[in-house]
Amino acid sequence: MKVILAQPRGFCAGVIRAIEIVERALNKYGPPVYVRHEIVHNGHVVESLKAKGARFVERLDEIPHGARTIFSAHGVARSVEDEAAALGLPVLDATCPLVSKVHSQGERYVQQGRSIVLIGHAGHPEVEATIGRIPGPIHLVQSEADVENLDLAPDTSIAYVSQTTLSVDETRSIIAALKRRFTDIAGPETKDICYATQNRQSAVRELSKLVDVLLVVGAKNSSNSTRLREIGAEAKIPAFLIADQSELDYEVLSKAKIVGLTAGASAPEILVEGVLDALRSLGPVELTTLPGVAEDIEFKLPAELNE
Questions:
Q1: Catalytic residue among 23, 62, 83, 126
Q2: pLDDT tens digits, residue range 237-246?
Q3: Residue 238: is the preceding peptide bond cis (ω within 30°)?
Q4: Domains observed in the chain
Protein backbone atom coordinates (compact mmCIF):
# COMPACT_ATOMS: atom_id res chain seq x y z
CA MET A 1 0.00 0.00 0.00
CA LYS A 2 1.14 3.53 -0.77
CA VAL A 3 0.26 6.18 1.80
CA ILE A 4 0.55 9.88 0.99
CA LEU A 5 0.51 12.39 3.85
CA ALA A 6 -0.96 15.84 3.29
CA GLN A 7 1.22 18.84 4.04
CA PRO A 8 0.32 20.80 6.10
CA ARG A 9 -1.88 18.76 8.42
CA GLY A 10 -2.73 18.67 12.12
CA PHE A 11 -2.15 21.36 14.72
CA CYS A 12 -2.23 25.00 13.67
CA ALA A 13 -0.61 27.85 15.60
CA GLY A 14 -3.86 28.79 17.37
CA VAL A 15 -4.36 25.25 18.66
CA ILE A 16 -0.72 24.95 19.74
CA ARG A 17 -1.04 28.22 21.65
CA ALA A 18 -4.28 27.18 23.38
CA ILE A 19 -2.89 23.83 24.53
CA GLU A 20 0.34 25.44 25.71
CA ILE A 21 -1.63 27.97 27.75
CA VAL A 22 -3.33 25.13 29.65
CA GLU A 23 -0.07 23.22 30.16
CA ARG A 24 1.87 26.28 31.33
CA ALA A 25 -0.95 27.28 33.66
CA LEU A 26 -0.87 23.80 35.21
CA ASN A 27 2.90 24.05 35.65
CA LYS A 28 2.80 27.54 37.11
CA TYR A 29 -0.29 27.41 39.33
CA GLY A 30 -0.67 23.67 39.86
CA PRO A 31 -3.80 21.61 39.22
CA PRO A 32 -6.63 22.00 38.90
CA VAL A 33 -7.12 24.72 36.33
CA TYR A 34 -10.58 25.10 34.83
CA VAL A 35 -11.29 25.38 31.11
CA ARG A 36 -14.60 26.69 29.83
CA HIS A 37 -15.68 24.40 26.98
CA GLU A 38 -13.27 22.03 25.21
CA ILE A 39 -10.01 23.91 24.74
CA VAL A 40 -10.06 22.66 21.13
CA HIS A 41 -12.41 20.20 19.43
CA ASN A 42 -10.48 16.97 19.94
CA GLY A 43 -11.25 14.31 22.52
CA HIS A 44 -7.67 13.01 22.66
CA VAL A 45 -6.35 16.48 23.51
CA VAL A 46 -9.04 17.02 26.13
CA GLU A 47 -8.40 13.66 27.83
CA SER A 48 -4.64 14.27 27.81
CA LEU A 49 -5.10 17.62 29.57
CA LYS A 50 -7.59 16.12 32.01
CA ALA A 51 -4.91 13.60 33.03
CA LYS A 52 -2.59 16.51 33.83
CA GLY A 53 -5.15 18.24 36.03
CA ALA A 54 -7.32 20.35 33.75
CA ARG A 55 -11.05 20.35 34.41
CA PHE A 56 -13.48 21.16 31.63
CA VAL A 57 -16.79 22.88 32.34
CA GLU A 58 -19.57 24.43 30.28
CA ARG A 59 -20.71 26.96 32.90
CA LEU A 60 -18.62 29.36 34.95
CA ASP A 61 -20.71 28.73 38.07
CA GLU A 62 -19.18 25.23 38.12
CA ILE A 63 -15.79 26.79 38.94
CA PRO A 64 -14.75 27.49 42.56
CA HIS A 65 -14.23 31.12 43.52
CA GLY A 66 -10.71 32.29 42.72
CA ALA A 67 -9.79 29.22 40.65
CA ARG A 68 -7.61 29.78 37.58
CA THR A 69 -9.90 29.83 34.52
CA ILE A 70 -9.10 29.50 30.82
CA PHE A 71 -11.29 30.47 27.89
CA SER A 72 -11.08 28.10 24.91
CA ALA A 73 -9.57 28.81 21.50
CA HIS A 74 -13.07 29.47 20.10
CA GLY A 75 -13.46 32.68 22.13
CA VAL A 76 -16.24 33.85 24.45
CA ALA A 77 -18.92 36.52 24.46
CA ARG A 78 -18.35 39.70 26.50
CA SER A 79 -21.11 38.55 28.86
CA VAL A 80 -18.96 35.52 29.74
CA GLU A 81 -16.01 37.79 30.52
CA ASP A 82 -18.27 39.94 32.71
CA GLU A 83 -19.60 36.87 34.52
CA ALA A 84 -16.06 35.64 35.20
CA ALA A 85 -15.15 39.00 36.72
CA ALA A 86 -18.31 38.99 38.88
CA LEU A 87 -17.46 35.48 40.13
CA GLY A 88 -13.91 36.51 41.02
CA LEU A 89 -12.24 34.19 38.52
CA PRO A 90 -8.72 35.04 37.30
CA VAL A 91 -8.81 34.38 33.56
CA LEU A 92 -6.33 33.33 30.90
CA ASP A 93 -7.70 33.87 27.40
CA ALA A 94 -6.73 31.15 24.87
CA THR A 95 -8.88 32.63 22.08
CA CYS A 96 -7.13 32.12 18.74
CA PRO A 97 -5.69 35.48 17.60
CA LEU A 98 -7.33 34.98 14.20
CA VAL A 99 -10.71 34.65 15.91
CA SER A 100 -9.95 37.82 17.90
CA LYS A 101 -9.13 39.49 14.58
CA VAL A 102 -12.66 38.69 13.34
CA HIS A 103 -14.09 40.30 16.49
CA SER A 104 -12.03 43.44 15.92
CA GLN A 105 -13.08 43.63 12.28
CA GLY A 106 -16.73 43.37 13.27
CA GLU A 107 -16.39 46.13 15.85
CA ARG A 108 -14.76 48.45 13.29
CA TYR A 109 -17.55 47.84 10.80
CA VAL A 110 -20.17 48.65 13.47
CA GLN A 111 -18.35 51.92 14.20
CA GLN A 112 -18.65 52.71 10.48
CA GLY A 113 -22.43 52.36 10.82
CA ARG A 114 -22.69 49.09 8.91
CA SER A 115 -25.06 46.20 9.62
CA ILE A 116 -23.09 42.99 10.26
CA VAL A 117 -23.61 39.71 8.44
CA LEU A 118 -21.80 36.75 10.02
CA ILE A 119 -21.07 33.75 7.80
CA GLY A 120 -20.98 30.70 10.05
CA HIS A 121 -22.64 27.63 11.52
CA ALA A 122 -25.40 28.26 14.04
CA GLY A 123 -24.54 26.96 17.49
CA HIS A 124 -20.80 26.68 16.91
CA PRO A 125 -18.87 28.06 19.94
CA GLU A 126 -16.87 30.44 17.76
CA VAL A 127 -20.03 31.82 16.16
CA GLU A 128 -21.71 32.29 19.55
CA ALA A 129 -18.61 34.11 20.81
CA THR A 130 -18.49 36.39 17.77
CA ILE A 131 -22.18 37.27 18.10
CA GLY A 132 -21.54 38.04 21.76
CA ARG A 133 -18.60 40.35 21.09
CA ILE A 134 -19.80 42.52 18.23
CA PRO A 135 -22.19 45.22 19.49
CA GLY A 136 -25.52 45.52 17.75
CA PRO A 137 -27.63 43.03 15.79
CA ILE A 138 -25.85 40.28 13.84
CA HIS A 139 -27.40 38.56 10.83
CA LEU A 140 -26.19 34.95 10.66
CA VAL A 141 -26.10 33.26 7.25
CA GLN A 142 -25.09 29.67 6.51
CA SER A 143 -25.89 29.49 2.79
CA GLU A 144 -26.65 31.51 -0.33
CA ALA A 145 -30.35 30.89 0.35
CA ASP A 146 -29.96 32.58 3.74
CA VAL A 147 -28.52 35.64 1.97
CA GLU A 148 -31.62 35.90 -0.22
CA ASN A 149 -33.85 35.66 2.85
CA LEU A 150 -32.15 38.49 4.77
CA ASP A 151 -34.69 41.11 5.82
CA LEU A 152 -32.50 44.02 4.69
CA ALA A 153 -32.97 46.50 1.85
CA PRO A 154 -30.53 46.18 -1.09
CA ASP A 155 -29.05 49.62 -0.34
CA THR A 156 -28.35 48.77 3.34
CA SER A 157 -24.76 49.51 4.31
CA ILE A 158 -23.48 46.10 5.40
CA ALA A 159 -20.24 44.31 6.21
CA TYR A 160 -19.54 40.60 6.51
CA VAL A 161 -17.23 38.61 8.77
CA SER A 162 -16.76 34.85 8.85
CA GLN A 163 -16.21 31.90 11.14
CA THR A 164 -12.51 31.06 10.73
CA THR A 165 -12.90 27.31 10.24
CA LEU A 166 -15.34 27.47 7.33
CA SER A 167 -14.64 26.22 3.84
CA VAL A 168 -12.94 28.91 1.78
CA ASP A 169 -14.99 27.88 -1.28
CA GLU A 170 -18.24 27.93 0.64
CA THR A 171 -17.42 31.33 2.11
CA ARG A 172 -16.48 32.70 -1.30
CA SER A 173 -19.84 31.70 -2.80
CA ILE A 174 -21.78 33.28 0.07
CA ILE A 175 -19.72 36.48 -0.21
CA ALA A 176 -20.51 36.55 -3.94
CA ALA A 177 -24.22 36.20 -3.11
CA LEU A 178 -23.96 39.10 -0.67
CA LYS A 179 -22.27 41.27 -3.31
CA ARG A 180 -25.03 40.47 -5.78
CA ARG A 181 -27.69 41.38 -3.24
CA PHE A 182 -26.25 44.54 -1.67
CA THR A 183 -24.84 47.68 -3.27
CA ASP A 184 -22.84 48.97 -0.26
CA ILE A 185 -20.77 46.14 1.17
CA ALA A 186 -17.42 45.75 2.93
CA GLY A 187 -15.52 42.78 4.31
CA PRO A 188 -12.17 40.97 4.42
CA GLU A 189 -10.84 38.91 1.53
CA THR A 190 -11.31 35.14 1.85
CA LYS A 191 -7.51 34.80 2.12
CA ASP A 192 -7.70 36.82 5.36
CA ILE A 193 -10.05 34.40 7.11
CA CYS A 194 -7.64 31.72 8.42
CA TYR A 195 -4.38 30.59 6.86
CA ALA A 196 -4.59 27.15 8.49
CA THR A 197 -8.08 26.39 7.15
CA GLN A 198 -7.04 27.40 3.64
CA ASN A 199 -3.72 25.54 3.67
CA ARG A 200 -5.25 22.27 4.86
CA GLN A 201 -8.09 22.46 2.38
CA SER A 202 -5.72 23.20 -0.52
CA ALA A 203 -3.51 20.28 0.49
CA VAL A 204 -6.47 17.87 0.61
CA ARG A 205 -7.69 19.06 -2.77
CA GLU A 206 -4.32 18.13 -4.29
CA LEU A 207 -4.11 14.90 -2.29
CA SER A 208 -7.57 13.78 -3.46
CA LYS A 209 -6.35 13.76 -7.08
CA LEU A 210 -3.76 11.09 -6.25
CA VAL A 211 -5.42 8.57 -3.94
CA ASP A 212 -8.10 5.85 -3.87
CA VAL A 213 -9.23 6.57 -0.30
CA LEU A 214 -8.93 9.65 1.94
CA LEU A 215 -8.60 9.41 5.72
CA VAL A 216 -9.07 12.56 7.81
CA VAL A 217 -8.09 12.31 11.46
CA GLY A 218 -10.24 14.61 13.56
CA ALA A 219 -13.24 14.92 15.84
CA LYS A 220 -16.80 14.74 14.57
CA ASN A 221 -17.52 18.16 16.13
CA SER A 222 -14.51 19.74 14.42
CA SER A 223 -15.76 22.03 11.66
CA ASN A 224 -12.46 22.17 9.77
CA SER A 225 -11.96 18.38 9.95
CA THR A 226 -15.48 17.76 8.65
CA ARG A 227 -14.83 20.04 5.70
CA LEU A 228 -11.62 18.16 4.80
CA ARG A 229 -13.63 14.95 4.52
CA GLU A 230 -16.22 16.72 2.39
CA ILE A 231 -13.51 17.87 -0.04
CA GLY A 232 -12.49 14.24 -0.52
CA ALA A 233 -16.10 13.21 -1.09
CA GLU A 234 -16.50 16.00 -3.67
CA ALA A 235 -13.54 14.49 -5.52
CA LYS A 236 -15.60 11.29 -5.84
CA ILE A 237 -13.37 9.11 -3.66
CA PRO A 238 -14.26 7.28 -0.43
CA ALA A 239 -13.47 9.76 2.35
CA PHE A 240 -13.66 9.05 6.08
CA LEU A 241 -13.46 11.26 9.17
CA ILE A 242 -11.99 9.14 11.98
CA ALA A 243 -11.17 9.99 15.58
CA ASP A 244 -8.25 7.53 15.59
CA GLN A 245 -7.13 4.15 14.22
CA SER A 246 -9.95 2.33 16.05
CA GLU A 247 -12.43 3.70 13.48
CA LEU A 248 -10.62 2.44 10.37
CA ASP A 249 -12.68 0.48 7.83
CA TYR A 250 -10.27 -2.35 7.01
CA GLU A 251 -12.55 -3.81 4.34
CA VAL A 252 -12.34 -0.59 2.30
CA LEU A 253 -8.63 -0.15 2.98
CA SER A 254 -7.76 -3.69 1.93
CA LYS A 255 -8.86 -2.83 -1.61
CA ALA A 256 -7.02 0.51 -1.77
CA LYS A 257 -3.67 0.87 -3.51
CA ILE A 258 -3.03 4.51 -2.55
CA VAL A 259 -4.36 6.01 0.68
CA GLY A 260 -4.32 9.73 1.47
CA LEU A 261 -3.96 10.74 5.11
CA THR A 262 -4.43 14.13 6.74
CA ALA A 263 -5.56 15.61 10.06
CA GLY A 264 -7.70 18.55 11.09
CA ALA A 265 -6.21 21.60 12.78
CA SER A 266 -7.03 20.31 16.28
CA ALA A 267 -5.79 16.72 15.80
CA PRO A 268 -2.34 15.82 17.19
CA GLU A 269 0.28 14.05 15.07
CA ILE A 270 0.34 11.09 17.47
CA LEU A 271 -3.11 10.10 16.14
CA VAL A 272 -1.78 10.16 12.57
CA GLU A 273 1.09 7.92 13.67
CA GLY A 274 -1.42 5.53 15.23
CA VAL A 275 -3.28 5.29 11.93
CA LEU A 276 -0.01 4.61 10.09
CA ASP A 277 0.83 1.81 12.53
CA ALA A 278 -2.60 0.29 11.94
CA LEU A 279 -2.14 0.47 8.15
CA ARG A 280 1.23 -1.26 8.47
CA SER A 281 -0.59 -4.16 10.14
CA LEU A 282 -2.18 -4.82 6.73
CA GLY A 283 1.20 -5.14 5.03
CA PRO A 284 4.18 -3.08 3.86
CA VAL A 285 3.54 0.67 3.54
CA GLU A 286 5.36 2.98 1.17
CA LEU A 287 5.10 6.41 2.84
CA THR A 288 5.51 9.78 1.10
CA THR A 289 4.54 13.34 1.96
CA LEU A 290 2.88 15.67 -0.52
CA PRO A 291 4.80 18.91 -1.09
CA GLY A 292 2.95 21.77 0.53
CA VAL A 293 3.07 24.99 2.50
CA ALA A 294 5.50 25.03 5.44
CA GLU A 295 3.79 26.86 8.30
CA ASP A 296 6.08 28.77 10.64
CA ILE A 297 3.57 31.08 12.32
CA GLU A 298 3.71 31.34 16.12
CA PHE A 299 1.31 33.25 18.35
CA LYS A 300 2.44 34.92 21.58
CA LEU A 301 1.35 33.52 24.92
CA PRO A 302 -0.23 35.69 27.66
CA ALA A 303 2.54 37.69 29.36
CA GLU A 304 2.01 36.08 32.77
CA LEU A 305 2.88 32.65 31.31
CA ASN A 306 6.14 33.83 29.75
CA GLU A 307 7.85 34.27 33.11
A1: 126
A2: 999 999 999 9
A3: no
A4: 2-11+195-289 (3.40.1010.20), 13-97 (3.40.50.11270), 98-190 (3.40.1010.20)
